[in-house]
């Protein structure tokens, strides 16, 4: 995108590139979107639960180059698009709980009358362990037994397990998930225990800050080695339509120091040298990981943290701006 910089509402090449990448990874894409030729909406269903959106920008600025007549990414929007795309693709993961219902019986007196649900779980694990030999290096299947019986002398009539299934791209993840499900179905067939399974997890306005989401982002950036923070309430400058979004739903926004010394500033010619360099790639990876980790926190802790704390701090409907109200029609 750096080499094909385009003005706002004219980002046809950048939009096409992002849309194609998202489709390759299993996203359902609507483009154009809301009557904007270079806008799109990409959706990936991950089961019931919270919904998380990442918002890319990919427009460039005019007035650069030797004759001040060139369009260039002097604000780093090519990296904003790349980091949000990376965060979305990082979330290619399925979380599935498998439950087996058997028939309880005394393990010594009447073993022939029992249908062992725990056997089904164990056979499922055996199948998955064998399957791992034929999976791609970027894929991971990790599981635990969450229920396996109550007493040694009783054949378990109920057993359950949970799995995280991860892959680099959604297309392969769906293929791998189906193989895991097939292992469960095979265990059902071998034991007679009944199987069920399900996903267990999943004008510009001012920016409304949310302490809950900001704390999550702060923690994740700190884990990635970013330790020097400036309070955004004090240092905020410029405008962004992310402010409009923040009046509609809880939003987190942050900016990362370029790391360039002497410092470079957005919208300046010197920024162009940084934004396409090696150091910028490190910052990009940090931003991508922080966004993805924060999104995972939302998915994994909906009732413990976000729905109680963040929604509590979110302003009531009376504070929603007229523009945000228009968006919600």
Automatic annotation (TrEMBL):
<protein>
    <submittedName>
        <fullName>p-aminobenzoyl-glutamate hydrolase subunit B</fullName>
        <ecNumber>3.5.1.-</ecNumber>
    </submittedName>
</protein>
<feature type="domain" description="Peptidase M20 dimerisation">
    <location>
        <begin position="96"/>
        <end position="184"/>
    </location>
</feature>
<keyword id="KW-0378">Hydrolase</keyword>
<dbReference type="InterPro" id="IPR011650">
    <property type="entry name" value="Peptidase_M20_dimer"/>
</dbReference>
<dbReference type="GO" id="GO:0071713">
    <property type="term" value="F:para-aminobenzoyl-glutamate hydrolase activity"/>
</dbReference>
<dbReference type="InterPro" id="IPR052030">
    <property type="entry name" value="Peptidase_M20/M20A_hydrolases"/>
</dbReference>
<dbReference type="GO" id="GO:0016805">
    <property type="term" value="F:dipeptidase activity"/>
</dbReference>
<dbReference type="Pfam" id="PF07687">
    <property type="entry name" value="M20_dimer"/>
</dbReference>
<dbReference type="GO" id="GO:0005737">
    <property type="term" value="C:cytoplasm"/>
</dbReference>
<dbReference type="GO" id="GO:0046657">
    <property type="term" value="P:folic acid catabolic process"/>
</dbReference>
<dbReference type="InterPro" id="IPR036264">
    <property type="entry name" value="Bact_exopeptidase_dim_dom"/>
</dbReference>
């Amino acid at each position: 995108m750096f080499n094909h910089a385009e003005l706002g509402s004219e980002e046809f090449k950048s939009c096409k590139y992002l849309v194609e990448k998202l489709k390759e990874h299993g996203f359902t894409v609507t483009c154009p979107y809301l009557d904007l030729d270079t806008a799109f909406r990409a959706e990936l269903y991950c089961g019931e639960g919270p919904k998380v959106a990442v918002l890319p920008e990919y427009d460039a600025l005019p007035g650069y180059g030797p004759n001040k007549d060139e369009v260039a990414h002097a604000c780093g929007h090519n990296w904003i698009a790349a980091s949000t795309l990376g965060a979305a693709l990082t979330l290619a993961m399925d979380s599935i709980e498998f439950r087996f219902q058997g028939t309880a019986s005394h393990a010594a007196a009447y073993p022939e009358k029992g249908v062992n649900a725990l056997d089904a779980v164990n056979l499922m694990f055996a199948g998955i362990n064998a399957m791992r030999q034929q999976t791609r290096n970027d894929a991971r299947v990790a599981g635990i037994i969450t229920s396996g019986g109550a007493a040694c002398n009783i054949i378990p009539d109920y057993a359950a397990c949970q799995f995280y299934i991860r892959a680099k791209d959604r297309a392969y993840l769906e293929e791998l998930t189906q193989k895991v499900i097939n292992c469960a179905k095979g265990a059902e067939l071998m034991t007679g225990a009944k199987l069920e399974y399900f996903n267990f997890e999943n004008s510009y306005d001012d920016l409304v800050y949310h302490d809950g989401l900001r704390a999550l982002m702060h923690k994740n950036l700190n884990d990635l080695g970013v330790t020097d923070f400036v309070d955004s309430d004090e240092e905020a400058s410029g405008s962004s339509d992310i402010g409009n979004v923040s009046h509609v739903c809880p939003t987190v926004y942050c900016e990362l120091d370029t790391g360039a010394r002497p410092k470079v500033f957005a919208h300046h010619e010197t920024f162009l040298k940084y934004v396409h360099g090696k150091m910028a790639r490190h910052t990009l990876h940090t931003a991508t990981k922080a966004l993805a980790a924060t999104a995972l926190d939302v998915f994994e802790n909906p009732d413990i943290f976000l729905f109680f704390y963040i929604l509590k701090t979110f302003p009531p409907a009376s504070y929603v701006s007229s523009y945000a109200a228009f968006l919600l029609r």
